[in-house]
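During the second half of the funding period, the structural biology subgroup turned its attention to how the target accommodates small molecules. The most pressing case was pyridoxal-5'-phosphate, which had performed well in the primary screen but for which no bound structure existed. We therefore specified the complex as follows and requested a full 3D prediction, including the ligand pose.
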Amino acid sequence: MDAAIAGIIEDTTFIKGQPVAAFEAAFAGILGYEPATVVGCSNGTSAVALALRAAGVGPGDEVILPSHTFFATLEAVVNMGAIPVFADIRRSDYTIDPDSVADCISERTRAVIAVHIFGTPCDMTRLTQICDRHSLKIVEDCAQSHLANWDGKPVSTFGAAAGYSFYPGKNLGAYGDAGATVVKDLEQATFIRSYIDHGRSGKYECAVIADNLRLDALQAKVLSVKLPHLAGWTERRRAIAAFYNERFRSAGFKTIEPDKRAYAVYHVYVVEVANRDAVQKELAAVGIDTGIHYPIPCHAQPALATAEHRIPTPLTVTDDIVNRIVSLPIYPELNEEQMERVVSNFLRVAVPVP
Ligand SMILES: Cc1ncc(COP(=O)(O)O)c(C=O)c1O
C-alpha cells in the first residue's frame, strides 16, 4: 500500500487518469461487467444519486425506499427533487418488503431503491416482478453489499443502475471518501463520467450544468490494492456470522435470516435484544464496542418534518425493531478468541425478545 501511494505522489496524477480507470475495470471485472459500466465517484451518497439520475428519476417523481436505511439513501432521493415514499421491511432479514412496495405504488412512482442492508440482498426476484409489472425502475443501494449475490447473480446487476460506497468502514473501504456508480451501457457511463466532471464535453466546454463528484486517484489506488483480498475477507465475515448465529439462535435470539437464495456479506451483524441499554453498557465495560444501525428510521428523522414524503402503509416492522437491534463486532481480522469473548459477554447479559 505504501508503495502504491508513493507511486501516485511521484506521478502527480491526482485526478482521473490511469489509477481510476484501472480500479473501475478491476471492480467491473469482479461484477462480471464491461469496464465502461462502472464509474468511480466521490462517495456512496453521490453514487446512489447518480444511479437515480441514470435511471431517469427527476423532480416530482416518487421513489419508494425502505425507511430502515442509512440517511444517505433518502438524501439521494430528496436532493434529486424526487419525493420519498417509505416502505416497510421484512421481519426475517430487514430488507425492503416487496408486499409493502406494491402498496406504495402510485401513478407518480418512478423507481424503487433496493437497499441491500447489512450486506443482505433484497428479494430481487419479487422486486423485479413487481417493478416490471408497473414499469418501474430499480435502483440498487449497494453501499453495504460488496460481492453479495442473489440467486448467483451479483447485486448491482439487477436494476437500472446501482451505487457503491467505499467509505473506510465498508467491506471494501478507501482511505477517505469514495464510491462507484454502476450503469447498464456505455452511453450512460459516458454521461455519468461527464456529469461527475462538471458536465464536460471538452477540456473547457461543458454540455450540462453538473457537478464535481470525481473519485481521486489516491483512493482508486488504495481500492485497487485491497480489491484482490475482498473475496477472502467476505468469506471470513460469513464465517464469523455463522459462528455468532449458531450460538445466539440456540440461546433464543433473533438474528438476520437471509433467504436461501441470498449470499449475504455481513457488513453489519445485528441481533435483537430486549435490554439493549444494558447490553451496550456491559459490553462497553469489557472493551467490546457495539452500535445501532439505525436508531432513527428515515421517516422519523427531524429533517423529514419539512420535506415532502409519503408513508402509505404502517411501517410496523421498522418501528418494532428500532429499539431492539444491536450491532456486534464483525470484521475479517476478528480472531476466534475475540469472537468467543463477544459471545460469552453478550450471553451473560442479553435477554432475548419474547
Ligand atoms: C445504505 C447506505 N447508503 C448510502 C451510503 C452513503 O455512502 P457514503 O458514506 O460513502 O456517502 C451508506 C454509507 O454510509 C450506506 O450505508
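Two results from this model are relevant to the next phase. The chain has twelve helices and twelve strands. Residues 41 and 112 are 22 Å apart (CA to CA).
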